[in-house]
Amino acid sequence: MDSDSLHDDGAAAKLRVSGAKLSTVDLSVVVPLYNESESVPELLRRLDETLGPLHEQAMQGLDNAHEGVTDRKVREQGMTCEIVLVDDGSRDSTYQVARHHGELVSVPVQIVSLQRNFGQTAAMQAGIDHSAGEMIATMDGDLQNDPADLPMMVDQFRERGLDLLCGRRKKRQDGMLLRLIPSWIANRLIAKVTGVKISDNGCSLKVYRGSIIKQVRLMGEMHRFIPAWVSQVTHPSNIGEVDVRHHARQFGQSKYGISRTIRVVLDLMSVLFFMRFRARPGHFFGVVGMAIGSIGMFMLGSLLIAKYGFGEDIGTRPMLIVGALAMLSSVQFICFGIMAEMLTRIYHESGNRTTYVVRNTSSQHHAADSGVNKSLMMKKAG
Questions:
Q1: Would you tell me the crossing angle of helices 260-277 and 281-309 to the nearest 10 degrees?
Q2: How many angstroms separate the CA atoms of 200 and 47, rounded?
Q3: Helices (DSSP H) in the chain: which residue ranges?
Q4: Taking the mean position of all CA atoms in its chain, how far away is CA 252?
């Protein structure tokens, strides 16, 4: 990817608008794109129609900024914005169309072009990595999500003091059999297993606190479980949901089908493991190993009593083989648990990673302490 692949190089750190440099961004809107050349012009037009006036208003008011301004309504104060489009290895002209129309909008546009198609989760992660916003919003590029909902969501996000606000598609415009029913089942299964009560995990329209979502690494197809992953770095009470509009797809075809239900179940098993045992995998493997070992000990114990208590022949009994295999499997599971614990410690220690996340810190100095410190300083000066 050459140096021209970004519409505005370095926009993630500093944005240039009308000759003025903007060092901070209130809202970054991340949009993964894959073969969406027909949707991009209308997508950018709607984003600019919604965010453009807010961005210009915020730019004009930067010199008059005062304390407490972030608590006011978005529509009253505006907010600095950027759009981050991620071309996920499209085979059509999505990248060229995005570059052309990105120059026509008033909101700064950054285009990240991936080498090949890595999938929606990887594209979303790339967009988040290249975003500079204090808040980061994600949405689909197929025009089914409505950009006009973003100001309302930002207001809700700020007023409720959330770390993640998920959109809940109202009057969803999808097929009943192939999309709605599998989605309904999956959402309830995810909520039951993860404990995060979100009724529409599949809606891509979400608003995150930038400092929170950047502590979460998305891999595979885990974008469906973002609320569950976020709940590992913040309390579930800081995750909310709000009704948003949903439109029928105007261009192209959906990239998803009924087959994704199986993948959701498999991914859910991985999510459950990482949520409960990521920091203590030895407990998972140890419990399984001890359960299997208990069964093996019961089998071998009963055979031992039959052999020496009743003089029965046990050499040809299948229970002998099953019991021996159970004991062997038990030892293997326990050993796996010990090795997993060692790997977990290496992971945290090698990268100076912590097993906790600090939300904020504060220190207070008492007047008496200040007086003592002041007197000590005067003595030293004398």
A1: 90
A2: 23
A3: 40-60, 74-77, 94-102, 120-129, 150-159, 181-194, 210-213, 226-230, 260-277, 281-309, 318-350, 367-381
A4: 26
Domain of residue 91 covers 3-63+72-277
What's the domain count of the chain? 2
Query: What does pTM read for this prediction?
Result: 0.72
**170 and 105 within one domain:** yes
Q: CB–CB of 33/125 below 8 Å? A: no
DSSP assignments along 234-276, one per residue: S-GGGEEEEEE-B----SS--S--TTHHHHHHHHHHHHHHHHH
Token pair for 296:
């093996």
Q: Which amino acid is located at 177 in the chain?
A: L
| β partners of residue 222 | none
Mean pLDDT by 10 residues, the chain (382 residues): 40 35 80 94 96 89 53 67 95 94 94 92 93 95 92 95 92 62 75 81 92 87 84 90 86 58 74 80 91 95 91 88 95 92 79 64 54 53 52
Which of these, 218, 28, 229, lies nearest to 118 by C-alpha position? 218
Measured distance CA(114)–CA(90) in Å, rounded: 9
Same domain, 35 and 146: yes
Angle at 14 between CA 9 and CA 15, to 5 degrees: 75
Tokens encoding 124: 């979303």
Which residues have a Cβ under 8 Å from the Cβ of 84 and sit 6 or more positions away? 12, 28, 29, 30, 31, 109, 110, 111, 112, 127, 130, 131
277, 292, 326: which is the final residue of a domain?
A: 277
Name 245's Cβ contacts closer than 8 Å, sequence gap at least 6: 146, 148, 149, 169, 170, 171
